[in-house]
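Lab channel / #folding
Pinned by the channel admin:
"Please post every new chain as: sequence first, then the structure tokens as a reply. Keep commentary short and put observations after the output so the thread stays searchable."

First post following the new format, from NK:
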Amino acid sequence: MLILYLSALHARASRTSTTTDSAHSNHPVTPPPFRLPQTLRSVYIISKHPFPQVDAFVDDSVHTYHLALARYAKPMKEAFADYLADHPRIRAIFVGTRRTDPHGAALQPFDPTDRGWPSFMRIHPVIDWHYAEIWTFIRQLGIPYCGLYDLGYTSLGGTEDTHPNPALRVGGREEGQGAEVRYRPAYELVQDEEERLGRDR
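Reply from TO:
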């Protein structure tokens, strides 16, 4: 989702620059060119029991993508309320929800938050992407990702409610007592509905 957003920013900046340069040749009055932000506002809602690997990946991403990251270690509704209070100019937030996620089936690409939640527009760039399409995009472009996905995890929450996906299990009791249990990487999963089989909730 972040890579899609960065690509869109770059494309807009390129189009604006080309249009402005062309317009200047005829000396019309033109608006200032669109400029890429120095940092991107982002928010990380930390799990009650976070994986060290996830925290490390977030830290790496802050450096790699120049993120102005706000961190909140509290339930999601409270975290968003605090984030909007700390950044009152925010009106919309990009969210990585897809239709196969819990409560995602009826969402539209642009949806205001539900009643009782802090008010902002939710933007869902990958709402209609399938699980396999997400991984094809990541791997074809060589986008870095959290190493837990190579260990069979397909949906990440906290350490107490997240396990390797049993659909990716290789070896174990059925292959003999004491056989090592291993898991294939997340990108080998095919079925959308199996993505959250490693989550307790």
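NK: The chain is about 30% helix and 10% strand.
TO: also worth noting, The helical segments are 2-24, 52-65, 76-86, 131-141.
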